[in-house]
Design a protein that fits this description.
- The protein has 256 residues and is α+β, with helices and mostly antiparallel strands.
- It folds into 2 domains: 160 residues, DNA mismatch repair MutH/Restriction endonuclease, type II (ECO RV Endonuclease, Chain A), CATH 3.40.600; 69 residues.
- The protein has 6 helices and 11 strands.
- Helix 1 packs across helix 2 and helix 5 runs antiparallel to helix 6.
- The longest helix is centred in the last third of the chain and has 34 residues.
- The radius of gyration is 27 Å and the shape is elongated.
- It starts with 5 loop residues before the first helix and ends with a strand.
């Protein structure tokens, strides 16, 4: 069971949202827009994340908040755990989140826990993911120019994720369900078409030429249906065997 709970998470997020609102007002008084650059905003919010979650954890555990270079953001001596805190607002039109860490630190530590807070640009909707006991094998080696930032292998690490707020969706499952539905629709279309052609064939039993034409039409449609069915089967096999891809659904705190 996770040492972080949904109740702790909601309390910490409430304080983070309050703090962000205060910072937004302060920036506005000086003619600045805090949310104009979510990356800079999240740098300001990172210390708030560490401290507010640490305060919640301290209700039940021994907690040390260091924050110095090379040290974990939150240390839990009684659990012998070290917790790295990360905050992200995603990127791109569809807000894709790449969960990253400093590869050098993780390699030196060997194993770390991670707390990712995912926030929308308005800082009103969130997903909170708590990963336990991740190792360098759970991350891609940094690419050249990535400044030692390593992307998480979500297909490996997600089985050690406690979703404390929001939702995690496996995109593979969504694709598989849609393809299954398309195959069910195809089967229904084929059944309806067979019945229709069967009625026409019965009606043309005394017209040999018409029967020949209908027989050819039936064979053409049977082959076309087989091709479409094989195409759907190929796509289903692909998504069943492909590495799992994940998406995140952010939820407002008003749902708490």
């Amino acid at each position: 069971m996770s040492y972080l709970t949904p109740a702790m998470t909601v309390a910490a997020l409430m304080r983070m949202r309050e703090f962000e609102g205060e910072m937004r007002d302060t920036f506005s008084r000086f003619g600045l827009a805090l949310a104009e650059n979510t990356g800079r905003r999240n740098i300001i919010m990172s210390q708030a994340q560490e401290n507010f979650f640490a305060q919640e954890l301290a209700r039940e555990h021994q907690v040390v908040v260091d924050g110095s270079t090379g040290e974990a953001d939150i240390m839990l001596p009684d659990l012998e755990r070290e917790l790295e805190c990360k905050i992200s607002s995603g990127s791109g039109r569809y807000r894709r989140f790449s969960l990253q860490t400093d590869y050098v630190t993780l390699t030196r530590k060997g194993e770390l826990d991670f707390l990712f807070v995912l926030a929308d640009p308005a800082f009103r909707e969130f997903a909170v993911l708590h990963f336990e006991r991740l190792t360098p094998d759970d991350f891609h080696p940094p690419s050249p120019g990535a400044r030692q930032k390593a992307r998480m292998r979500k297909e490996r690490a997600m089985d050690r994720c406690n979703v404390l707020w929001g939702e995690v969706l496996c995109r593979n499952d969504g694709h598989i369900e849609r393809l299954k539905e398309r195959r069910r629709e195809l089967d229904e279309q084929w059944t309806t078409r067979l019945l229709h052609l069967g009625e026409r064939i019965i009606a043309a039993e005394n017209a040999p030429r018409r029967l020949t034409t209908l027989g050819k039409e039936l064979e053409r449609e049977r082959l076309a249906m087989m091709d479409r069915s094989e195409e759907l089967t190929t796509k289903l096999d692909h998504w069943r065997n492909a590495p799992k891809q994940f998406g995140f659904v952010l939820s407002p705190l008003e749902d708490a």
